[in-house]
Design goal:
The chain is built from 13 helices and no strands. The protein is mainly alpha-helical.
Length: 327
């Protein structure tokens, strides 16, 4: 398990380095882009000079006339650059996506909703397959709730990129990742069991994780909105839980030789591969499908696999407990 985790560390460090420079874009500084935006605003956005009508479905998503000019000029400049044999460039830290029904990044919206459905279906499967009395079920249900919230705010952010939707997306994703680290040792080390030592550790672990999240949000909101820090924090938390699940998967497999025991390790490797898509950033295919949206697509499969694992693992534990009672 060490080699995959070492490679994952390399991947995420590279992602963090690239993320820190994502906000600076050549397109923003192009003279032709700035001139286009200025002329468009002057000719189309003057309220005293018959301003251009904005379609209703765009107004519903809060598109303003200056933003319409910015979007239109991005694509005018992009088409001219392609005709001149020049590469596509980013604007405001993003590729020039083609809107669909006013949505800025349609495939990222679609795949975010795909992850949302995976969590909803997983929650239904947990409730159907695991008795309510099983002590770990509530932790698994919370995992589903955090996942649902994460992907709702992800979809909203990719529909329209505002300061508010960006912050909600980041804070929800951070909460989801941190909760993943919170419940991982509860399962791996069975901190849910009602022994004095385990209960004391669980209380301390709960307080620590809550304090970490409050500190994380406070730093971003009150001190500095730092993209590199946010990515690095999520990566560090993700590495901890990935290492624990890799250990658990190896240990469970050596003990039981059951196929489902390797599913956590498979999920970790799968996520490692799809995260590497962020290193392969490329202009969106058909103006809509980019590496980031493919990353969102790639997380749907591991999510489905993970809920199947939680069900199998719970059923195995329940069966073993029943045997112990009979014995």
């Amino acid at each position: 398990m060490l080699r995959p985790l070492s490679f994952l560390t390399f991947v995420v460090v590279c992602v963090c380095l690239l993320w820190g420079t994502a906000e600076a874009s050549l397109g923003d500084r192009l003279p032709e882009f700035r001139e286009c935006v200025e002329v468009c605003g002057r000719e189309n956005c003057d309220p005293n000079n018959n301003p251009t009508h904005i379609p209703f479905h765009h107004r519903l998503l809060f598109w303003t006339c200056p933003q319409e000019c910015d979007y239109t000029c991005q694509h005018i400049v992009t088409q001219k650059r392609l005709a001149a044999g020049q590469p596509i460039t980013q604007f405001h830290g993003k590729w020039p996506f083609i809107r669909v029904l006013g949505m800025q990044e349609p495939f990222s919206v679609l795949f975010s909703l795909g992850n949302l459905v995976a969590h909803q279906n997983g929650l239904a499967k947990l409730r159907q397959s695991i008795p309510a009395a099983y002590p770990l079920r509530r932790y698994y249900e919370l995992f589903a709730y955090f996942g649902i919230a994460t992907w709702i705010f992800s979809a909203i952010f990719h529909v329209r990129d505002f300061r508010l939707t960006e912050q909600l997306d980041y804070f929800a994703a951070g909460a989801g990742v941190l909760y993943g680290m919170y419940y991982t040792p509860i399962r791996v080390f069975r901190l849910d069991k009602p022994t004095p030592l385990r209960q004391s550790v669980l209380r301390l672990w709960t307080v620590l994780c809550c304090a970490l999240y409050v500190a994380h949000v406070a730093y971003l909101k009150l001190w500095r909105w730092n993209y590199t820090y946010n990515m690095a924090a999520n990566v560090a938390v993700g590495l901890v839980q990935n290492a624990l699940w890799s250990y658990f998967s190896w240990k469970k497999w050596t003990e039981s030789r059951r196929a489902w025991a390797i599913w956590p390790g498979v999920a970790v490797a799968w996520l490692m591969m799809v995260m590497s898509l962020e290193l392969l950033d490329f202009p969106p295919l058909w103006g809509a499908l980019d590496a980031h949206s493919l990353w969102h697509l790639g997380t749907i499969g591991p999510t489905v696999l993970w809920y199947n694992f939680m069900v199998k693992d719970s059923q195995e534990n329940l069966a073993n407990e029943a045997k112990d009672v009979k014995a």
